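Aim 2 progress update. The chain analyzed this quarter is reproduced below.
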Amino acid sequence: MNRVQALVFLQQGTRTGKLATVRPDGRPHVVPIWFVVDGDEIVFNTWHTSVKARNLAVDSRASLVVDLEQPPYAFVMVDGVVTISDDLDVVVDVATQIGRRYMGEERAEEFGRRNGVEGELVVRMHIDRIVSRDDVAGYGE
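Predicted structure tokens:
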């Protein structure tokens, strides 16, 4: 996949991302997340006291993997640096966008209100590097 194809792949359906951050002692921390793509950024919400929020406040580097879990199998892995915001208007907007993607249009506003609260953060990971592979099983060969 080229970069454009990888970005399209990231936006398809309701695939869950697996976000990797670095703990203060150097151990990795990997957690599933719901996200949206905004240009060259992966955007998601997290609670301010979550392990990922605490990790990213200390070390802003992160990686995300999204994969297709059935044949022909595929994946996109992105590396980047994050910025974090607690602007409540932005938190509500992003939570609503994520709700729309994963819960559907009919529940987007509900999800946005539920998750667009004080204490929730918006994390924007600028995509610095993409590694991707389509047709991992070799069906097209």
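The chain is about 30% helix and 40% strand. The chain has one domain: 3-86+118-133. These observations will guide the mutagenesis experiments scheduled for the next reporting period.
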